[in-house]
Structures are given as C-alpha cells and as structure tokens.
Amino acid sequence: MNRFLLLLTAVCTACISACAQDKKENMKTAKVLVAYFSATGTTAKVAHEIVAVSKGDIYEIVPEKPYTDADLNWNDKKSRSSVEMDDSKARPTLKGQKENMNDYDIVFIGYPIWWNLAPRIINTFIEKHDLEGKVLVPFATSGGSGINNSVNVLKKTYPDLKWENGRLLNSANRKMLQGWIDDLK
C-alpha cells in the first residue's frame, strides 16, 4: 500500500511539474498587446517602453471625442472627466476598436489614475473587446495615487477575466520592465 501511495505521489508530482513547465513555455511564446489610454502623453511613453521590452504590439485607446484641457480639469466638478468619474456607468465612446484580439494571449492595459480609479474609457475598452481567456496586466501612471484601488475595482467589475497584479510605472526603466515582464512570462 505504501509503495502504491509513493508511486501515485511521484506520478502526480511529475504531472504538476510538466504542466507548470508547459505554462512557462507557453508564456514565453505568448503574443502580447499593450493597449493604453493616455490623456497627456505620460502613459503613452510607458506603453512604448513596455512594447520595446515585451516585443508586443501597441494599441492606443482613443476616445471618439478627444479630451481638452478643460475636460481634464479635476478641480471643476462639471468638467467632462469629473462627470464621467462621478458616474460608474459612464462609458466614453471609442474612436475605433482593436481588430484581431484573438491573436493575443497577454494584454497590458495602461491608463492614468483618475480619482484613484481607471478612467471610464478603460471600462469601454474592456466591454467592447473579447478578453476572455487572456491574461490582463494593468499598468498606470499617477501624480499621487497608487494603482491598487483601480486594479481591485477592475477585478471586482470584471471577475471572470484573468487579472494579474498591476504596476504603477511613473518612472519605468527597461531593466525593471524586463524583470517584471519576465516574471509574468
């Protein structure tokens, strides 16, 4: 009986190890998309750095109606961004959609932090694209807030999607990005 249990344990360990190795190999060959929204260009710079390191494709999430400086005035409760962020159901219209989403295994989703959250246009992007089965990796830039609350809200809003922990990348260098991306893969 003990030999049987020992043999069974060895077989199970080998299967788990093989599956983990297969996952690691699959992640190394994973097709990456870096999708980002950037109102002022800060998040765009980080997105391009991630593309350079990951060798992925890039896609800018563009609102149908561009944000003006007045729209982004967080001190004005009637500004477009303030009104959108005050309404959890707000979904700004996208200028277009990313084609061929089925081609990607990992999707980095980048955004500036607005009111400790992802801008509502990120919700629009998620809801307009089939992201089921993909690994979603949030990243953000911010003048003062962390990323954790925004990621927690995204995970809660879209619990059926595969979320990785997010990263605040105000000053990302290639070496740090390479380590982060290698850890994901």
Tell me what you see in this structure.
It contains six helices and six strands. By secondary structure, the protein is α/β, with parallel strands linked by helices. Strands 1, 2, 3, 4, 5 and 6 form a six-stranded parallel sheet that branches. Helix 5 links the parallel strand 4 (135-141) and strand 5. Helix 2 crosses helix 6 (174-184).
Shape type: globular
Low-confidence spans: 4-27
The domain count comes to: 1
Distance between the termini: 40 Å
**What count of helical segments does DSSP give?**
6
What is this entry, summarized?
With 185 residues, the chain is of the alpha/beta class. It has six helices and six strands, in the order αβαβαβαβαββα.
Secondary structure blueprint with pairings:
Elements: H1 2-28, E1 32-36, H2 42-54, E2 57-60, H3 80-86, E3 106-112, H4 120-128, E4 135-141, H5 148-157, E5 162-163, E6 167-168, H6 174-184
Parallel strand pairs: 1-2, 1-3, 3-4, 4-5, 4-6
Helix pairs in contact: 2-6
Question: Notable features of this structure?
Answer:
Rossmann fold; six-stranded parallel beta sheet; 6 strands; alpha/beta
